[in-house]
Amino acid sequence: MQTFYKRKQKGFGAVELIIFIVVMALLIIGGWYIWQAQTTKNETTNNPQDTTNSKSIYKIPEFGVEFDIKDGIIPIHKVIEYMDEDGKTYPAINMSTQQLVEKGADVFSGQQNLCSFVAADGVHVLLSLITVRVFASQEELLAVEPKSFGPVIASDIKPTNGFITIGDKLFHAPQQPAIRGGSCLSGDNAAFETRQREALQQSLLTLRKSK
Fold first, then answer.
1. Residue 196, burial from CB neighbour count under 10 angstroms (0-12, 13-18, 19+)
2. Which of 53, 105, 158, 205 is buried most deeply by CB count within 10 Å?
3. 3-class DSSP state for residue 174?
4. Which helix (H) or strand (E) element contains residue 105?
5. pLDDT digits (tens, 9 = 90+) for 68-84
6. Cα atoms in the 13 Å half-sphere on the side-chain side of 56
């Protein structure tokens, strides 16, 4: 009887050991999964996906430049040439937003959309919120701008005023507010156009060489 009791005690010890090992293994596996999930979450927080950032940058490939998009606008552009009083041509970038074009289509439903950006021929720009002018140097800008677009002096030429040098080009993205209301919208809708222009102006202040 004594021998049987000892064997029974020994048997219970082995079962308890197995149960202990199984429980420990489950705890270790569970802890590993929790740690792995937390690590993945931290990596996602510290390293956001580039897809979001890429959508907030607008590129102008004709000049190899880009800028950050502000306030969710959808910029659109067309490179043109403008002529000064002496008949000399210079490159420029006419710009608007897709939201303004769509707003105009809604406001002028059934009529000509005065906020249209590109005419039916695909060549002429109908409305430009901002025209970014491109110069080869500061000297060229000082020679052309005062005659064609108003007084500019050397002390005005700084990034906060929309004068941005990139490589061998000097870009001028005017930051002045509209003189009177909207260019294509009026009344209560003029405020919408103003907000689009201001967001585009702020966006262009981040103009830089494309990466």
1. buried
2. 205
3. coil
4. helix 98-107
5. 999 999 999 999 988 87
6. 12
pTM: 0.69
CA angle 207, 181, 124 (to 5 degrees): 60
SS3 176: coil
Q: Which of 89, 56, 67 has its CA nearest to residue 173?
A: 67
Eight-class DSSP state of 188: G
- Strands 208-209, 163-166: pairing is unpaired
Residue with tokens 């110069």: 135
**In angstroms, rounded to a whole number, what is the distance separating the alpha carbons of residues 20 and 4?**
25
Per-residue CA distances from 182 to 30, 116, 147, 150, 198 (Å): 63, 14, 25, 20, 12
Q: What are phi and psi of 164, to 5 degrees?
A: -130, 120
- Phi and psi at 148, nearest 5°, equal -100, -30
- DSSP code, position 118: B
33-69 pLDDT per residue, tens: 777 766 655 543 444 444 344 459 999 999 999 999 9
- Tokens for 58? 């607008």
